[in-house]
Amino acid sequence: MKNVIVGQSGGPSSVINSSLAGVYCRAKELGADKVYGMRNGIQGFLDERLVDLGEILKSEAEVEMLKKTPAAFLGSCRFKLPDAEKKPEVFEKIFALLNKYEIKVFIYIGGNDSMDTIRKLADYGLATGSEIRFVGAPKTIDNDLAETDHTPGFGSAAKFIATMAKEAIRDEVVYSTNRTIYVMEIMGRNAGWLTAAAALARGEDNPGPDLIYLPEVPFDMNAFLEKVGALLKKKNNIMIAVSEGIHDDKGTFICEYAAADKAVDAFGHKQMGGTATYLCSVCEEKFGCKTRAIELSTLQRCAAHLASQTDVDEAFASGAKAVEAALSGRTALMATLNRAGEDPYRCEIDLADVHYISNVERLVPREWISEDGDDVTEDFVRYALPLIQGESWPVMENGLPKHLVLK
Amino acid sequence: MKNVIVGQSGGPSSVINSSLAGVYCRAKELGADKVYGMRNGIQGFLDERLVDLGEILKSEAEVEMLKKTPAAFLGSCRFKLPDAEKKPEVFEKIFALLNKYEIKVFIYIGGNDSMDTIRKLADYGLATGSEIRFVGAPKTIDNDLAETDHTPGFGSAAKFIATMAKEAIRDEVVYSTNRTIYVMEIMGRNAGWLTAAAALARGEDNPGPDLIYLPEVPFDMNAFLEKVGALLKKKNNIMIAVSEGIHDDKGTFICEYAAADKAVDAFGHKQMGGTATYLCSVCEEKFGCKTRAIELSTLQRCAAHLASQTDVDEAFASGAKAVEAALSGRTALMATLNRAGEDPYRCEIDLADVHYISNVERLVPREWISEDGDDVTEDFVRYALPLIQGESWPVMENGLPKHLVLK
Q: Which domain range does residue A176 map to?
């Protein structure tokens, strides 16, 4: 009797299901009886919404398609587990359910909040003498988890962002005769890893973005406008990459200025606007030229059709490592990705104490950002480039990617 | 002495360079001496900014990479050729330059306006007894050219749109527990072909968009809100695809309502907003739930990494056909794509009189749109599906698509 349960939580990524496949395959290899999936994370588990993954992943082909399907196969949730002292009844219910289904191993694939869930459950388990083991598998496009060199999901999002930046810049330069400012808005409220990835577009065949602004450095509107003005004297088409989370030195998000005096339309409805749209409006007014805001929106976290094979493989391996550790009796850990070699790049999967991970946010080091705060350095490029290598082209059917879906 | 010149004009597409490759390769096969490219279309030609394509496309590998490079390789322009009666000096200059470079064949790859250029030059040539031949090769993601079943560029844009819709819907359903309305804004000011392509996302593994609004049918805000309200009673996540050009029965673009009372921000700058953002704000206010606007922006016209092989091949063939016709002495034509077979799909490249094409806009037939105007019919799906078939994966280098670029 060695049942395993696995859940997915937090925001989607292109490879979160490759981690799930890793958990499933390794658990089976190591002799687990049943591998349950919880639908919509811990929230669904509390409602006993379980599936038997063995009944779904019947062949190698289904496992392969799962690895190439974006967004949480099992569904996700944003459920913050309370503290055990404050609401012991939640923990009692969870452990009662785990015992009911004879589960010995609990794996949670997710980011910061999910590791907080692992930490709380593992600590409660240890305190109550339970033999159930809790281990996390990392997942976040934001790349902001501590104790790991990078996170599964980041490489694929970075590959999509750099590709779209490359293609969008190709698109813009065809009109070399008209002045236009493009602002590409990229996810990242506090950490600028994803926005920095736009720098990867640079190469012999592409100039890449002209300016890159991360949330790690306060955004100075006047300095920004000066830079853009200087660039417009040299070239007609300017591409600026910005994190959605850029803010000024008072800590006010730039997009909040856009919303400061929300417009009311002809019907009396309030307007909304993002960071890129706002910067475009500021530039349009200042320079009187055409602008275009490009928001990568949710596309950047689900574009599995352009996933990085390195990322897919590492996600799988980290899921496998997590379940392996738990099955061997370890708890309160998260699988980590350690850079074991630079040239050639080599990644070893390791484990770290989840207490050092939950609720910690890893930002882009200041020294990887240019002094003026408007670009990233070569150090960042050297760091990120190995993570986007290799193509994991989707299973195509009738001209479109085919996904494995839980009915 | 049989020199050819080719130019690209109007908006970019993923396969506009495959048409260019088709012109170049067929011209060389048929014994053309030099094949010139004009930089930035007719505008660059007037400045004698020519390149000798034979010096650039030296090997098969370069031709293949050209076919997979998005956006006009030669650069584009938005230059409206005046009427010959009004400004004969422009035509005199163009023909003098054509004679100077001993050019007998002039090929222009583009949409409506480009075909207007071909028409005017061909008519002027015929009226003045010139032997120079002018033929157009179709190009537009908008799919709105007359006399052709579809246009090169549409299939690849449709494939990207349907793929992103599929992936974005996968992304949204992971939170089945929260109510969210997604609005995806797709290009198309007057013609809804591209927005209709979102319907292709539907399949066994994806529900596709819940509502689809094209500019061909006036948009009724009250009916829209009623539909959304009814959908919210049945499901938590709703995906709505809208053309940027939807307008009400008075002809006012919906995005104009957003701009009606433009907000002024904390710095006194004016706000901007798109159709999707506007509909999101209306829905947010009406239903009090989360919304997210997804604008595909320029990404949809340059995402060559997801080009349709059918589209790439047809673009090449139409470029080849255009130069073949011109070299055989014909003029005032455009290459067309005729659907010669349904099952299996078969496309024949033909020619049509450019006088019937320039300045005509082909819209989605009313009978391919649902009666309520909030979806497309199976007829549209049958029409579009063959056009997205086949993958033209990019040449990858260091994890990213590699493009051929004119220095």
A: 157-302
- Cβ-based contacts of A267 with chain B (< 8 Å): 221, 257, 282
A216 & A277 share domain: yes
Other beta carbons within 10 angstroms of residue B224's beta carbon come to 22
Written as one letter, the residue type at B70 is P
B116 included as an active-site residue: no
Q: Once rounded to an integer, what is the mean pLDDT over residues A351-371?
A: 95
Does the distance separating the beta carbons of B261 and A400 come in below 8 Å? no
Distance from CA of residue A374 to its chain's centroid?
23
Q: What is the pLDDT of residue A271?
A: 44
Strands B400-401 and B396-397: what pairing? antiparallel
Mutate to test the interface with B, among A39, A79, A141, A171 (most CBs of B within 10 A): A171
Cβ of A264 within 8 Å of Cβ of B269? The answer is: no
- Number of separate domains in chain A: 2
The catalytic residues of A are 142
Tokens of B52: 């000798």
State whether B193 and B116 are in the same domain.
no
Q: How confident is the model at residue B155 (pLDDT cuts 50, 70, 90)?
A: very high
| pLDDT the model gives residue A272 | 44
Q: Closest to B174 (Cβ–Cβ): which among A12, A258, A297?
A: A12
ipTM confidence:
0.95
DSSP classification of residue B71: S
